[in-house]
Amino acid sequence: MGFELVLVRVMGVQRKTVQVLAEPVDRARVMTVQDCADISHALSAVLDVADPIQGAYTLEVSSPGLDRPLVRPADYARFAGEEVKVETALPIGDGRRRFTGTLRGLEGEDVLIESGGETVRIPFAAIRKGKLVLTEALLKRHAAGTSGQVAR
Question: With 60 as the cut, is the pLDDT of residue 122 above it?
Answer without folding.
Answer: yes
